[in-house]
Amino acid sequence: MHRIAKLTATCAVIMLVGGTLSMPAAAEESSDVLSVDFSQTTGDFRGGATGTLYGFGDDGAPTRALINGAHITNTSQKAPYGTQHPSGDALKVEDGFFAKHGKEMCIYVQDYYPEWPYNGGRRPGDDRTYNQADGTYTSTPNGIWDYLEVVEFVTEAVATGSARPKDYLFIPFNEPDGGNWYNDWGTLKDTFLADWKATYDKIQEVYARHGLGHARIGGPGDTRWQPQRSAEILTFAKANNVLPDVFIWHELGINNLSTFRANYAAYRQLEKDLGIDPIHVNITEYGMLRDMGTPGQLVQWLSIMEDLKIDGQTAYWAYAGNFNDNSARANAANAGWWMYKWYGDLEGGKTVAVTPPALNAVDTLQGIGAIDTRNKRATVLFGGGSKPVSLRLNGLPRWVFDDLVDIEVREITLSGAEGVSGTPRVIKALDGVALTKRSATLEVPTYDRYAAYQVLITPSQDRAVTASPVWTASVEAESTALTDATVYFQDPLAGGGWKFLASGSHDVGSFNKPTSKADWTVTVPRDGRYRFQVIGGTPGTPGRHALFVDGANPTIVQYTADLALTLYQKWQYRGSVEVTIPLTAGQHTLSLRSSLDGASVLPNSDITLDKFLLTDVTDGEPTVYPASTLRYAGGARVTYDVPAARGYASIQGKKDRADAYVQAWETGYHDLTLDYRSIAATDATVSVNGREVATFKPRKAGAWRSTVRAHLSQGINEVEVRSKNGILLQQLTTTRTPDADSAAVTIQAEDTIRHGGAAVTTYADNSGSNASGLKGIGSVGNGAGNTFEIPRAAGFDKPGDYDIAVTYANAELSGRHDYNPQVVDRRLNVTETGGGSGYAYFRYTYAWNSFLERTIPVTLTTANGSLVFGNPSAWAPDIDKVVIAPAVVGVPTTVPAP
């Protein structure tokens, strides 16, 4: 059913009774109750549960916007000189990690070794002599334990090469109980304990020689909670003054959702029994494949760790550089990323008591509640249940919220590991609700158990609080009219959690006959342009379908490849594809088919289908980011003290900043509009992805609307708003303006000037490749002469700021692993002859004929210096096309607000 229509219909039967929102009795009986008491705070928001293991690839992969928006405070990365993975060296990614929210960079020292288990699972002896300057070695003994030499040069590299060495955590051993050197505790206990002390002392010795004080060390890092091992390790460590600064173990598997709290309680009791002061805990691997990218699963884990005020890092089940399947494409969000973002938005607040239907249970409704008194907003994040939720909001203090509150409910639904999820929409809005005894009850329908919800409560604002006005609809693929296709149940408990989940727990497969089709009959509200999105799995190769409207006018739906390394990734690692089609008002049948002619299948059309979405984009899909949802730095905050500007953000001074993470469905121009007030002549500066795009300067007091037409990258863009002299910001609105894309210049790679070994590649039509014109170029880089060149031309023949959007393929792997593709992030440099330069790392695309898009921001300083692309030291990605776009078009405007 059409989602907005469904929710509007639900809202129509809600009755406001003395400040309590009530549903009919039948609906209440089938609801799960989640109670939140904002008068019972449980501590400062920790925010450490969205850490990652190898979630960062190389610099810019993930992009800075994805990193900052996800608000990741801790990560475990490869040690300097490490050969365990081709990317993810801690020193190379620390700038992006620490830029805004990063607090602790953990490194697995054993990642020096190239294989898993480390060193073939065998504890090293003294067979090598290491060069402490670069980690190379000769195969001769020198009387020093080999691993102790590794520990020394890794620690030395951090001590001398990091800008933040005191913010590192060294993890000398990873899963030592699981086949890595010390699995037989009965015979190897003494060896481990001696090795723990030796490595601990060596790390401290290196930091002392550089005057860095105490080096932080974490461990033991067992595969699971091990009571006996932990007791003996802590007893030894206390006696020898080598206690870890962070105690580490892993919580993997389905049932850990029920045993996690008990394990933690046992650990804290062990500390008390041994007379040890509490040590911070980081669960450096948690969750299974089924949890990654799935907001209704992730919120269950986050709620436990935030309740316990510990840190945690999602496990590494696929490949490095995508937050463990919690981001999409080169720069986009999946549903898991939005869960991370919502969680990070709680920074600065205090958590409050939440009572779910059951604690310590697998796959049940769980939640996190928080109150931010500075910005006067209360938040509840919840998900994991399949029933509608009766949300009991209690103890909302009068001194924060007065007697009337606004309530907004946003929803994120499963979009697949690689599927793009748009900015979460307001599905329910309540304006000016009167509280009764500081309480309200809110009924929220649940899409399915894999969805999650954000409920935002504020004092009544001086803006209309409404549901998202843009029309959208969705349908599960299994609920469409199917021909020659099969519905499969994707059991979330199957395979021990080694599977990716499907929305509604079902998907459609065996879509492999010329007559295979899925028909969706839907009614649209008006004539216009509509985005049709398919969430589905394209295993290992790009593929195609045809979309018919009322049996005619087919549009090719072009899929990119998805991960298919193993059987539990193939068909289940779902991405998304979007096409825009014209529709007239009224009912239509959208028919997604494997064939254009009903006689032969399209290339690689055997694709699993999970869900379809349809959205009205006729007016550019205006998306509002109100002040109540933004993040703030410096002294900036939401205020309710100014008449006619209640709920606006006060931003004033060099250190004040508001951050928004805005989503663009496609690369191109968007209007960024600020609505704000000023009490005098003032200024408002807007930056996009770290680059200033406009400064507005209204010359007197008033209510203003300022707009800049800026180029955004497909996916998440970081927008920062500042004001030296002070504004009261109501909201930021983004609107797609596709007609402005004519200002950008597209150059097909095969039409560029090629040098050295750079060569044109032609892709067969039956390969299913999404390369435009089925051509591109490869063999770029790996030598200074292997480049391609683009002469300056109209559209980019002036100095200034530009975005260079590169459509590329990169399927390079290095080394092997049983289930983790060892992906290489390829670098592409762009150099302006006689002028500036830029670069970016380009992540894995799963196949050499499957292309994604990545933007390189550049500032050109000449009018005629040609652009040269290459990489002198390693291979660059293969290139399909390049789009060069001015960062801003037109003249920014400021007019009185309507």
TrEMBL record:
SUPFAM superfamilies: (Trans)glycosidases, Galactose-binding domain-like. Residues 1-27 form the signal peptide. Residues 473-615, 745-885 form the CBM6 domain. Keywords: Signal. Gene3D superfamilies: Galactose-binding domain-like, Glycosidases. PROSITE patterns: CBM6 (PS51175). This is CBM6 domain-containing protein. The lineage of its organism: Bacteria, Bacillati, Actinomycetota, Actinomycetes, Micromonosporales.
